[in-house]
TrEMBL record:
Gene3D superfamilies per record: Jelly Rolls
Signal sequence extent: 1-25
Organism of origin: Bradyrhizobium lablabi
Pfam families xrefs: Cupin_2
Database matches in InterPro entries: Cupin_2 (IPR013096), RmlC-like_jellyroll (IPR014710), RmlC_Cupin_sf (IPR011051)
Keywords noted in UniProt: Signal
Name of the molecule in the record: Cupin
Domain Cupin type-2 intervals: 51-111
Cross-referenced CDD domains: cupin_BLL4011-like
Record keyword Signal present: yes
C-alpha cells in the first residue's frame, strides 16, 4: 500500500511539473509525436519518424537537420520555404525532400490542422532540429 501511495504521489508531482510544458507546446500550435527511431546499416546514421501537427495559421521557423528529411503531408495543407526557393504549398498526399543541412521553415496557411509524417535520415547523436536566426 505504501508503494502505491508513493507511486501515486510521484505521478501527481510529475503531472504538475510537465503540465506547463504541455500547455506551452499547445499554445504555440506545434505538436511533434515521435513514432520510431532505428539505427541504419550505414555507420553513424539513424532513421527517425515523427508526426508533426500544425494548428491553422501556425509557423515553425527556420531550422536545419543533420541529414535528409522526407515529408509526406497526411492532412490539411502546409507551406514550406526551402533554402532560397519560392514557397511551395502541399496538400494531403503530397511529398517533399529536404537535403541535409538545408535551412527551411513550414507553416499552416489553412483553416484546419495540417499534419506531416517526417522521416529523417540523420547523423546519430546530433540534435534533430537546430533553429536558425
Amino acid at each position: 500500500m505504501k508503494k502505491l501511495q508513493i507511486s501515486a504521489m510521484a505521478a501527481l508531482v510529475a503531472g504538475a511539473i510537465l503540465a506547463p510544458l504541455g500547455a506551452q507546446a499547445q499554445q504555440n500550435g506545434v505538436t511533434r509525436t515521435d513514432l520510431q527511431r532505428h539505427d541504419l546499416s550505414a555507420s553513424g546514421r539513424e532513421a527517425i519518424q515523427v508526426r508533426v501537427d500544425l494548428a491553422p495559421g501556425v509557423a515553425f521557423g527556420k531550422h536545419t537537420h543533420p541529414g535528409e528529411e522526407i515529408i509526406y503531408v497526411v492532412e490539411g495543407q502546409l507551406e514550406y520555404q526551402v533554402g532560397d526557393q519560392p514557397p511551395v504549398t502541399l496538400k494531403a498526399g503530397d511529398v517533399l525532400f529536404i537535403p541535409a543541412g538545408t535551412v527551411h521553415s513550414a507553416r499552416n496557411p489553412g483553416s484546419v490542422k495540417g499534419s506531416e509524417l517526417a522521416t529523417y535520415i540523420v547523423e546519430k547523436g546530433k540534435p534533430l532540429v537546430t533553429l536558425v536566426k
